[in-house]
Design brief:
Chain lengths: 167, 800, 290
């Protein structure tokens, strides 16, 4: 076993958006603060720090996760995708376009988390195992849109994908 | 091609969907910033005997600690617009008056360390009786929060318009009821955030915050900091993560941080955490209303008598008691009523001070008023829609002067009602609901609300908290102003600066639409700067984002500034071409005359004013930089008769809600929701609908889920997002229809009225009316939790 | 809302964990962190030492042997849900897990963490009771197997000794012709249950042979009862049978009275949801309507 003292700086290695980072951190540093303050990736927003609002959602090893409920030290060696990583990925151009065209965001604060959740759900959806969108969206609070634009964006994306699959 | 009126997707989206928004938490505008944590009161009411901060400085990384007593040297109490203000500081001085009130400020190198440090501060409190019940607070006060207000009343006013006594006496039927509107709040997903820097050499303050006005509060802050206004520079970040009003109340923290920076000699940053926000930021005022309404036999509303008690929290804080007055000009909503008696009390309790929350003053008024209409309809055995129609202000009465002084500029209320009834299938569903009664636990109900939606607040309305005699001793206040600048640089790049401090409404996009239309240039050639900087942005006291004022005020300031640019460029073109400028027009960014296009472009003309100013014709000044201050019409100060047009323009909406209520579980399901709006010309329908969707989600939240509940000790019992129930996607009905009428706002150049708040005012009443219809029980309070529904059912069955 | 400082230990074996728990005051085990880190951010939990199980081998396995599914304590909820989604005999399990929080928390929240947390309104403790599961613990005096009924003692309190660690849960596999149903009443999607009900039924030849009915949010722990003996061999769930079964559950309830619901409403909900769950479980088990 390895023991670290509370004020000791501990080396962690994380791959964020495909790039490997090695940083020295305190054991108590939250992953959300690690991403924002240590790496300068401020697209991950902090809204509640008790795991309810979903603004800080990132992908950890491919699964959506609240970065405010993870200690950076405890995800050592993990693979993380933030909104900045999604932004570089052309695969999600359609997602971005659908969000904008359907006015799925206003203040944009909850948006990065929602886009990551939607992106990963779209990847895993199939005809035999369709996504329960209410379940996915219930993990995010949006105070601007009433979720109407968000639902419309998802519908538009699915219609498009369905169309492409048939074509 | 005209862009105005089109559903243009937003230019803001690009940065926001790519994680490139810049919010207050993201910025470090000066070097050397230290981080703040705030020690807060665990008591609702207590005297501070002693604060021991001696252990704080032993923690590595701590810069310093400050208490209320320390700050007294640099602070004055915040001014507030009531005759009998109480001493309100951004931090407790000797006494705490609500749970969460700041007691000490710690500054350290990280927020983590700052939080460690507040843990080791010891405070000795002597607890005092807690004032929690609004009516008891002023009628049988268990304690006085402030020495100069022994009855805890911060403001009391009485108004009589027409002859309500006689009109009520002559009424065939009186409805008398008591209504309770709860404390709820806006709960933006981004919390408050402030960075403050005091420059010791100059004594100048610079404060960055996600503050969006009203900028009249700038003078309030400068006063509290005891500096002249030019020494307080306020800047807002590029992006603000929602507010819905509540971030206007970040201003006490702006002052707190500014003063802390001064005393500790370093720039400081504070990002409020969610628990702080829930406990101690701000909230809507809870209200108890006693309403007496007199109706004639045929359903005409003759007169109303309203007595309202607002819970404004522990300190009356500017701009309160405005919750009581924001709707003063539209007190009787859509109805033609000439006789009103109104009594207002702003009552202080041991809860967080209140302030702006989307709908401000509207839901507190319309929940009782629109419930009264349904109660009357039931008693008169009339259809609620027809009772409303019978009382509507008729189309030929516009502009309509209300009894209390409002000037409703335009509308066609009957037509909007018709659209709503048709879209909802009102008659069919009513029948269906009736047939459903007594068959199992599920009941169906349908309900509506009709709301006159004020926008573009008149800055003069707040002064109606004073009596006419008191007002006569002050300088008058009035107006609803917005400012904008359109500038063109030497190579034709267009920059527009606005004072509307948006937090997601899409102002940057609509501004592009306006300027692109006026100058006939592509929207992409325009850059919009929405960040406020009180040192360089043209602004006025009414600047900012509140009272749905962008469409009516801000957009027209931009339009006016763009017109000035156009006029200057066309004058220059006319001199160049030797023709009358009246014969010229812009098309595709180029000057045209009757015969066709010239080779003069916007770029060329602007370039002339920069590159060759020496040869400009006389009367044409160098550069293109036009600022326009636009003032909405009909925004005069209150009269000696207490008549006030509290808003510059008034839209209208009718909501129809269909619900299913399970009488066993208390579960309410919103089956379908129709909302029909008339907000004049829409500048961008896509964004207008977005505002309506958001407002409706708020309204549904307040109707069914949201309440800041306190126990008798003044402790917030819904203090996390697990307990304060913000609706998720599943709680918003998928069957939701938004429709529009387009009655132009006659006095406003672009013809648009504000929107986005109306459904916060209507949904509580519409849902309550639908639930009443389903259960056959009257509803007098919100939110309609399963528990509340069951209690209503039991009461009806005589078991409650 | 930042955690107070703590020492951090990466345990590499179950013995490591036991040793730490035995010798460190206020040490806490970190599994998925979905409840613990939230509490730490609020500084309602201030462990002196945090022991992560992430490096302990074997805790994230799901194995099926001799009619028992063993779920390692570190298996995340979403994984168990997707594995059990097609298992008709565990019908209420995947459905019930679907009510835990949101996909974004189920992806990190562990089965062991939720069960050890012992929230009286949580889904997994109820499911473990309904499926007659048990908890495998390891401690200084060896390995223990504790039946679910004995494991949950009070709200947020279990039979786990301070120096013990939960290593797995055991889920006996019901016979194939079983069905289950899970019903939950909450204010919002994904909220903690006001009341949750789970029903499991096994049938043979269109007759009830076994069953469990349980509820959460209505007592200090989740509660569950067996199919009453006199309903065994009955052909189907009738209204009377349902009432009878519910009546055997009711004495175990001690529903709280709070902001969200009165204790009367909670009892009503157990009845309403209970009837729905029984009917659905019957159908899912293959029970006919005649």
């Amino acid at each position: 076993m390895i023991r670290y003292e509370k004020d000791q700086r501990v080396p962690v290695t994380l791959t964020v958006n495909g790039r490997e980072y090695r940083q020295w951190i305190e054991p108590r540093l939250l992953l959300s603060d690690f991403l924002r303050d240590e790496l300068g990736l401020t697209g991950t927003h902090v809204g509640c720090e008790h795991g309810v609002c979903g603004a800080c959602t990132i992908l950890l090893n491919g699964s959506p996760a609240r970065s405010c409920l993870k200690l950076a030290i405890d995800v050592d060696d993990g693979q993380i995708t933030t909104i900045e990583g999604l932004a570089r990925d052309e695969e999600f151009d359609a997602l971005r376009q659908a969000f904008s065209e359907n006015h799925a965001l206003q203040c944009g604060f909850c948006t990065p988390g929602i886009m990551l959740s939607v992106a990963v759900a779209l990847k895993h959806t199939s005809e035999s195992d369709p996504v329960d969108w209410d379940d996915v969206l219930s993990g995010h609070l949006c105070r601007c849109t009433g979720y109407v634009g968000i639902r419309r964006a998802i519908k538009a994306l699915q219609a498009k994908e369905g169309g492409e699959a048939k074509a | 091609m005209s862009w105005l009126g089109q559903s243009v997707p937003r230019f803001e989206d690009g940065r926001l969907i790519n994680g490139q928004g810049q919010y207050i938490a993201d910025v470090m505008p000066v070097p050397g910033i230290q981080h703040v944590a705030i020690l807060r009161s665990p008591h609702a009411h207590a005297r501070i005997r002693r604060i021991d901060t001696s252990r704080v400085t032993s923690i590595a990384g701590v810069t310093g600690v400050i208490t209320g007593r320390d700050l007294l040297t640099v602070l004055a109490p915040f001014p507030v617009g009531v005759p009998r203000p109480v001493a309100y500081y951004p931090i407790a001085i000797d006494k705490v008056r609500y749970v969460g009130e700041p007691v000490a400020v710690v500054v350290a190198n990280t927020r983590y360390v700052a939080e460690d440090a507040i843990d080791v501060i010891e405070v000795d409190y002597e607890s005092l009786p807690v004032v929690s019940d609004i009516e008891a607070a002023c009628q049988r006060p268990p304690a006085a929060l402030h020495e100069n207000a022994p009855d805890n009343v911060a403001n009391h006013r009485e108004f009589t318009y027409g002859d309500p006594t006689t009109a009520l006496k002559r009424s065939d039927m009186l409805i008398q009821e008591r209504f309770v509107y709860p404390r709820n709040t806006a709960m933006p997903i981004e919390t408050y955030g402030v960075v403050a820097y005091y420059e010791q050499s100059s004594g100048d303050y610079t404060v960055w915050a996600n503050f969006h006005g009203p900028f009249t509060l700038h003078s309030v802050m400068a006063h509290a900091l005891k500096v002249t206004t030019q020494k307080l520079r306020i800047k807002t970040p590029q992006d603000i993560g929602g507010s819905y009003g509540v971030k206007s109340a970040v201003y006490p923290y702006m002052v707190l941080l500014a003063a802390t920076s001064r005393l500790l000699g370093c720039p400081v940053k504070w990002i409020e955490d969610r628990l702080e926000h829930m406990k101690a930021s701000s909230s809507a005022s809870a209200r108890i209303s006693y309403v007496t309404a007199g109706f004639s036999r045929n359903g005409r509303l003759q007169a109303v008598d309203i007595r309202q008690y607002d819970d404004v929290g522990a300190y009356i804080r500017a701009p309160e008691p405005a919750t009581l007055y924001r709707v003063h000009g539209n007190l009787t909503g859509a109805y033609d009523v000439r006789h009103i008696h109104l009594e207002n009390y702003a009552v202080m309790t041991n809860r967080v001070p209140t302030g702006l929350v989307r709908g401000y003053g509207g839901p507190q008024l319309y929940f009782p008023l629109e419930r009264i209409m349904d109660i009357a309809a039931r008693q008169l055995k009339m259809d609620p829609a027809e009772l409303r129609r019978a009382n509507f202000i008729r189309q030929n009465q516009f502009p309509y002067r209300t009894a209390s002084g409002g000037i409703y500029d335009s509308g066609d209320y009957g037509a909007v009602l018709d659209t709503a009834l048709e879209a909802s299938g009102y008659e069919d569903f009513k029948e269906q609901a009736r047939n459903r009664q007594d068959s199992g636990p599920l009941r169906l109900g349908i309900g509506m609300a009709a709301v006159v939606e004020p926008s573009g607040s008149n800055m003069g309305y707040v002064t109606i908290a004073y009596t006419p005699e008191e007002r006569a001793r002050q300088l008058p206040k009035s107006g609803a102003v917005s400012a904008a600048t359109v500038a063109i640089d030497a190579l034709g790049g267009i920059t527009v600066q606005i004072d509307t401090a948006p937090e997601g409404q899409g102002h940057e996009t609509v501004v592009r639409q306006i300027v692109a239309d006026v100058l006939t240039v592509p929207m992409e050639s325009i850059r919009v700067i929405a960040e406020m900087d009180t040192a360089i942005t043209p602004w006025s006291i009414s600047s900012g984002s509140y009272s749905s004022r962008f469409a009516a005020a801000g957009a027209n300031a931009v339009f006016s500034a763009a017109q000035r640019v156009k006029s200057k460029l066309l004058s220059l073109a006319a001199r160049q071409l030797g023709v009358d400028s009246q014969t010229l027009r812009f098309e595709e960014g180029r000057v045209w005359r009757a015969q066709g296009a010239t080779d003069l472009t916007v770029k060329r003309l602007a370039g002339l004013t920069h590159w060759n100013p020496a040869e400009l014709p006389s009367g044409i000044s160098p550069g293109v930089y036009e600022t326009s201050y636009f003032s909405l019409p009909n925004a005069g100060p209150p009269t000696a008769e207490d008549s006030i047009n509290s808003s510059a323009t008034y839209g209208f909406l009718v909501d129809v809600a269909k619900v299913a209520v399970n009488t066993e579980t208390g579960q309410i399901t919103v089956l379908d929701y129709v909302t029909v709006h008339d907000a004049g010309q829409l500048l961008n329908p896509l964004l207008a609908d977005g505002q309506i969707h958001g407002g409706l989600a708020f309204g549904l939240g307040s109707a069914l889920y949201e309440e800041l509940r306190y126990d008798e000790e003044g402790q917030l019992v819904t203090g996390s997002l697990m307990d304060y129930l913000v609706p998720t996607a599943s709680e918003i009905p998928e069957s939701l229809t938004v429709l529009h009428h387009h009655t132009k706002a006659p006095g406003i150049p672009l013809g648009a009225k504000g929107l986005g708040e109306g459904n916060v005012m209507s949904a509580g009443a519409a849902i309550a009316n639908a639930v009443s219809n389903a259960l056959g029980v009257e509803i007098f309070s919100l939110p309609l939790s399963p528990r509340a529904v069951i209690e209503s059912v039991l009461k009806k069955e005589g078991r409650g | 809302m930042k955690p107070a400082p703590f020492d951090f230990i990466r345990a590499e074996s179950v013995d490591d964990v036991i040793a730490i728990l035995s010798h460190t005051e206020d040490a806490k085990i970190l599994a998925g962190g979905q409840s613990l880190v939230a509490m730490m951010n609020m500084r309602l939990a201030r462990p002196s030492t945090l022991v992560t199980l992430r490096g302990v081998p074997g805790l994230d396995a799901i194995e099926e042997k001799d009619g028992v599914v063993t779920v390692g304590a570190m298996v995340v909820q979403e994984r168990l849900r997707s594995m059990m989604g097609h298992r008709q005999e565990f019908g209420a399990l995947a459905e019930g897990i679907g009510y835990i929080g949101h996909p974004q928390t189920r992806s990190m929240g562990t089965v062991g963490g939720s069960i050890a947390h012992a929230d009286p309104s949580a889904e997994l403790p109820l499911l473990l009771q309904v499926y007659r599961g048990s908890v495998k613990t390891a401690g200084p005096s060896g390995v223990r197997q504790i039946a679910a009924e004995d494991f949950f003692q009070f709200p947020f309190s279990t039979a786990l000794e301070p120096e013990e660690i939960m290593v797995a849960t055991h889920w006996p596999v019901p016979i194939m012709s079983s069905g289950g149903s899970f019903r939950e009443f909450s204010r919002r999607r994904g909220d903690f249950a006001i009341v949750a009900v789970a029903c499991h039924i096994s049938i043979e030849h269109q007759r009830l042979v076994d069953g469990r009915l349980g509820a959460a949010g209505v007592a200090g722990t989740a509660v569950a009862v067996d199919l009453p003996a006199d309903l065994r061999g009955q052909p189907l769930i009738t209204d009377e049978a349902a009432t009878h079964w519910l009546e055997t559950l009711m004495p175990h309830l001690d529903p709280p009275d709070d902001l969200e619901a009165s204790s009367v409403l909670r009892r009503t909900l157990v009845e309403t949801l209970g009837r729905e769950a029984m009917a659905e479980a019957w159908v899912r088990a293959g029970g006919g309507t005649t």
